[in-house]
Design goal:
Blueprint lengths: L9 H7 L4 H18 L4 E9 L2 E4 L6 H15 L5 H18 L9 E6 L12 E10 L2 E10 L4 H12 L9 H6 L2 E3 L6 H8 L8 H10 L1 H13 L2 H22 L5 H10 L5 H8 L6 E3 L2 E3 L46 H8 L6
Antiparallel strand pairs: 1-2, 1-5, 3-4, 3-6, 4-5, 7-8
Helix pairs in contact: 3-4, 8-10, 8-11, 9-10, 10-12
Length: 358
């Protein structure tokens, strides 16, 4: 049986949190991205840095390809057989994306389209979306702008629109494995990210980017409290503050939907100032709305309530084993002993009196 899928793991934030501003900025963006997934926003944007011939997420210390591979390896142990080929395809596809976009000969404005349909019956991947990567440049140098759009098209419909609209004859077979393993490289002459999206957009239920901007602005003080809770390390308050972000987002959105001047309403919310801890605990203690998808829901940080939905295999990526004795860092699963120094969990416990060496 596969391990339960979790769309947002608070324990990831616990691992990376520190007083470095970049770590806190990264966590804030991750929470906002997750809110976008819960509210099915039409568009999410990302910045990827190009460092030493590899693509890195903004403020992330390891190459994104390594993150994807670790997620795939995790799923080899805990995942479902039906998703094996798809997860390998994600690695293969991003290797191709990286090869194109890090090449100094690649022209600025080059667009790479990665299409991610829902998985087969029984798959944990139930979202339908596409990513558009654009090679661009600013005062810091070259970087990649990533955009993720939700989609209402089937794989066959997507391929047909690309063939008819862009006059591209050689396109991948319309299956999740083929599309993920074969990203489509588009030169500048095929259009910008906006133009590609215009070609592929089909009306469906989603939150438009401006509404989401208002929502994430209004919920900003709650996200700040969540980051403070991580710094303090109070487990109960971490859970309460994270759940408060989700619950308060729902409360704000219900009110935003009914007001005419959303910008003015958000300003009124922000004038109230930083929420009190008692209010955070009260809102965080309320039941969290479960956002149902084909494989479960997105909800509370409390482990006994987790059963969430997944976009891509990188969502499963987490640090494997770091030996507390010699500092060895594993890139994948290890057995009962450290590959670096050979110490076992039992030996470490006997030497230090600690219960575990994980």
């Amino acid at each position: 049986m596969g391990k339960e899928a979790v769309a947002y793991k608070v324990e990831f934030d616990r691992k990376i949190v520190g007083k470095e501003e970049k770590a806190l900025q990264y966590i804030g963006r991750q929470v906002e991205t997750h809110l976008g997934e819960r509210f099915n926003t039409l568009l999410s944007t990302f910045r990827f840095e190009l460092v030493d011939g590899q693509i890195y997420g903004e403020d992330v210390k390891e190459p994104f390809l390594k993150t994807i591979k670790r997620g795939r390896d995790y799923r080899k142990i805990y995942g479902e057989e039906v998703d094996r080929r798809r997860e390998n395809a994600e690695v293969e596809g991003f290797e191709k994306i990286q090869k194109v976009l890090v090449d100094p000969k690649t022209e600025l404005g080059t667009v790479v389209l990665s299409i991610s349909p829902r998985g087969e019956n029984g798959s944990i991947y139930r979202h339908n979306f596409y990513d558009i990567f654009t090679l661009t440049e600013d005062e810091k140098g070259r970087y990649v702008e990533g955009r993720r759009y939700s989609s209402a098209l089937s794989p066959v419909e997507t391929i047909k629109r690309l063939r008819d609209g862009l006059n591209i004859m050689e396109l991948p077979f319309p299956s999740d494995v083929s599309l993920l393993s074969n990203p489509i490289v588009l030169g500048q002459e095929k259009g910008t990210a906006d133009e590609i999206h215009s070609l592929l957009h089909e009306n469906h239920e989603y939150m438009n980017p401006l509404d989401f901007y208002h929502l994430k602005t209004a919920i900003g003080p709650f996200i700040e409290i969540y980051k403070e809770a991580l710094l303090e390390g109070n487990e109960d308050f971490i859970i309460d503050s994270y759940d408060a972000v989700l619950n308060q987002s729902d409360k704000i959105w219900r009110k935003l939907e009914s007001v005419e001047d959303k910008g003015k309403f958000v300003l009124e919310i922000l004038k109230v100032g930083v929420p009190s801890r008692d209010y955070i605990r009260m809102v965080g203690s309320e039941p969290v709305r479960q956002v149902m998808t084909g494989c479960g829901s997105s909800g509370s940080a409390s482990k006994d309530k987790q059963n969430n939905s997944i976009f891509r295999v990188s969502d499963f990526s987490e640090e494997w084993f770091t030996c507390p004795k010699c500092g060895y860092k594993a890139d994948g699963p290890v057995g009962n002993s450290c590959p670096g120094c050979g110490i076992t969990k039992e030996q470490y416990a006997a030497e230090t009196g600690e219960d575990t060496c994980e």
